[in-house]
Amino acid sequence: MSIPFSSPRSTLLRLHQLTRRNILHRHQQTRLASTKPQPPPNTSPPPPPSWAYYTTPLASPFRAYTAMQSRRPLLVQLESTLIIYWIGDLSAQAVGSAGFSEPGSRYEPIRGLRALVIAGICSLPVYKWFLFLGRHFNYGSHLASLGVKICVNQICFAPVFNTYFFGMQSLLSGGTWEETKRRVVHTVPVSFWNSWKFWPAVTAFSFTYLKPQNRPIFAGCFAVIWQTYLSWLNKMAERGEGVSGKVEEREKRVEWRMAGATKKAGLGPKG
User: Fold this and answer.
1) Compositionally biased, Pro residues: which spans (predicted)?
2) pTM of this prediction?
3) 80: buried, middle or exposed (CB in 10 Å: 19+, 13-18, 0-12)?
């Protein structure tokens, strides 16, 4: 049996031929690619950025708020309520004085301080109330659950809170119990009926689309508007009480003058 043997010369020859074929093949491919018509350059404008491009910067503060609330929920709720009430009172003062442009109008710090005291007292009870409302009145139908939550909130919470708000405003202003009672009677019914025009839609959206930890900040944005209205309504009640008080004082002075004139004329009762 013979073993095939190839000389080094033949091996080099085959290697040279193989290398030459590869070079020719690559050259032909390059020439064919260069003769192909090049596509025209893309002159169309780039696609517009997606919604995430715009919403990401806006969502960052909400994510930060959610993270802080998950760590310290009560403290964050207290701070948020203080800010909301102060901004609401500031807005009410600006609205009542046409942006502080009326003659003699200026910011009243004492009103802002009263708003902060009222906010600090009611912050945590209000927070607990909405947590209670979220855990209860949950039925098989979402619409039924939503309707019951709205009705319970409007019938049970709104009158109590409005009574507390206007009563504290009167007491912190130095009003008597009689004046506080009059303030509550004049303002609570009006604010109660107007709350039905505002809060049911906010409550329905909150309990439908938002997580429990995100509901306070969402409601807080609308609470600024509501607190502006309540502060404005309270100021109107103060002015009304001031006018009625002046009228009563004037009537008393007239009665005293008439009584004095009657005594001088000798028409008074004789002892």
Assistant:
1) 37-50
2) 0.65
3) buried
116 Cβ neighbours under 8 A, 6+ residues apart: 82, 85, 86
Rounded to whole angstroms, the Cα distance separating 123 from 76 reads: 10
DSSP H helical ranges for 38-138: 51-71, 73-96, 109-135
Q: Which residues contact 13 (CB under 8 A, 6 or more apart)?
A: none
167: Cα within 13 Å, side-chain hemisphere: 11
pLDDT over 80 (residue 264):
no
Cα–Cα distance between 169 and 58 in angstroms, integer?
36
How many angstroms separate the most distant Cα atoms in the chain?
Answer: 167
Q: Residue 115 in contact with residue 88, Cβ under 8 Å? A: yes
Q: What is the pLDDT of residues 200-233, one digit of tens each?
A: 999 999 888 887 767 777 887 788 888 888 888 8
| Contact of 216 with 77, CB cutoff 8 Å | yes
* 120-162 per-position pLDDT tens digit: 999 999 889 988 998 999 999 999 999 999 999 999 999 999 9
**Tokens found for residue 139:** 């039925």
167, 156, 148: which is closest to 192 by C-alpha?
156
